[in-house]
Amino acid sequence: MPGFPKLSLVEGAFEELSLELATYLDNAKGEGSKLADEITPLLADSEKSDRPEETDRVAVLKKLVGASSILNGAPERELQAAYNLLIHLISQVEEPDIFIARICTYMTAPITSSPQNGTGIALGILSTLFNTLPPDDSTRYNVLLAIVEVIKSSGNWETLQPQLKNVDKWVQEWELEDAEARKLFLAVSDAAAGSKELEQSYYFLLKALKTIQSDASSDEASKLSIRALKLALHNEKHFDFQDLTALDSIQALRKSDATWAELLELFVREDYEEFQDFKEANDSFLPDNGLDEDILDKKMRQLTLASLAAHNAHTRTLPYAQIAKALNIPTEDVELWVIDCIRSGLIEGKLSQQKQEFLIHRSTYRVFSDTQWREVASRLETWKSSLTNVLAVIRQQKEEFIKEKENEVTGQGVQNGQGYRPNMRQRNAPERSQPQAVEVE
To answer: Which of 203, 268, 277 is nearest to 240 (CA)?
Structure first.
């Protein structure tokens, strides 16, 4: 693996800068530290050679990097400069990976000298390290993991969010194995969850789950599947579960965790009444697995109302009484639930207090089966026929317009012919000669 480019703001030979950093570390550690004395013979051996030996530099860096944990307690104004110098020295060797991994470990630990600004300092150092490496260098992977870990511990999600669009590109550029990509996706998902960004957390958890489909029946696949299902159920904005049911690992739950599979099936296609039956039959399942019953009840009522609206789409009306019965709520609460469902984007329509009806404008199908596809095909055919008729009318109107214009032009030409008749006879008659004078002698 090639090294990374030199930092433009650091000048000096490797030997000189190494000794300078070693002296600083000795002073930071206090009396008894002899790092400068330990590396001086190694540096002397390098100076004797026209071409510094790689092994000597690696040996020097092992000592410098090993002692650099003390920098986390260095004064804030000196800490980042010292790390920049260390990064520059690491860039002088061909295989910097082992040293970069150690720096990442240091940066994920607390910076004791600056509790308030420690997160910003750590992210600044890691960002310098990340941006200094070539884009296709897989060492960037470890640096990014450290950045995500710092963000997770600090809750500084907004720092990472603008870079999320690049994650898939980085995974490809670094040619990560499935296990490595899964580790990265899970780290991002955890960081998002820690900042209450449930949509992003679920998105990257699903990406992690997709990297394990080749072994869908494994314990890891089962645990990740259940974790994704719990996150989807608790997310108040997530109503479409077909992204889960399409995964092999979710299908494998039917054998390994039948109760979880049954719960998912309820939210895919069943209604509130069946969900109550499930809770009675599995009375301790929800609390034992950390599921919030109130959140699940609310979501199931919303999905039940969406199904009612879709089922009555042909009549365009849904009586309050039918809604109250299906949702097991008082009639006076129907309008609140309808409004809440509209806000969730599941349905659209208008409430009629006078008729005690909900007028359906749009509804969401929870499961898009062959029946719905046939309905879509029928509607598309109707629209196609209507558009064909409209197009025929437009063409006919266009033809009539063109004919009218032609008739207007022809009519005006006839009028011009009647109003002007040139005297062809005079125009074609030979010109008469004038009489000439005859001279008489």
So the answer is: 268
Nearest residue to 308 via CA among 329, 291, 280, 293: 329
- Cα–Cα dist 44/15, whole Å: 8
- Per DSSP, the residues of 222-266 read HHHHHHHHHHHHH-TT----HHHHTSHHHHTHHHH-HHHHHHHHH
**Whether the Cβ atoms of residue 213 and residue 247 lie closer than 8 Å to each other:** yes
Distance CA 441, CA 439 (A): 7
CB 7 within 8 A of CB 87: yes
Distances (CA, A) of 301 to 2, 119, 205, 293, 337: 58, 43, 26, 12, 8
Residue 351 has what DSSP assignment?
Answer: E
pLDDT > 50? residue 440: no
- For 56, the token pair is 């000597």
Instruction: Say if strands 347-352 and 317-319 run parallel, antiparallel, or are unpaired.
Output: unpaired
Q: Tell me if 39 sits within 8 A of 64, measured CB to CB.
A: yes
Contacts 24+ apart (CB under 8 A), 305-308: 305/337, 305/338, 305/341, 305/346, 305/347, 306/239, 306/341, 306/346, 306/347, 306/363, 306/364, 306/366, 307/271, 307/366
Tell me which DSSP letter residue 436 carries: P
24-35: b (≥16 Cβ within 10 Å) or e: bbbebeeeebeb
How far is 119 from 160, CA to CA, in rounded Å?
13
Distance CA 277, CA 265 (A): 13
Q: How far apart are CA 110 and CA 69, in angstroms?
A: 11
pLDDT of residue 366: 78
Whole-number Å distance between alpha carbons of 43 and 37: 10
Q: How confident is the model at residue 42 (pLDDT cuts 50, 70, 90)?
A: confident
Whole-model pTM over 0.90: no
Contact in structure between 25 and 63 (CB atoms under 8 Å): no
Round to the nearest angstrom and report the end-to-end CA distance of the chain.
128
**Measuring CA to CA, which residue among 77, 78, 67, 11 is closest to residue 37?**
67
Q: Which helix (H) or strand (E) holds 362?
A: strand 357-363
Instruction: Retrieve residue 275's tokens.
Output: 């969900």
Residue 429 has pLDDT above 50, yes or no: no
Distances (CA, A) of 7 to 3, 4, 10, 131: 12, 9, 6, 11
Rounded-to-integer distance, Cα 256 and Cα 52, Å: 60
CB contact set of 327 (below 8 Å; sequence gap of 6+): 272, 301, 304, 305, 334, 337
C-alpha–C-alpha distance, residues 411 and 413, integer Å: 5
The residue extents of the domains of the chain are 1-108
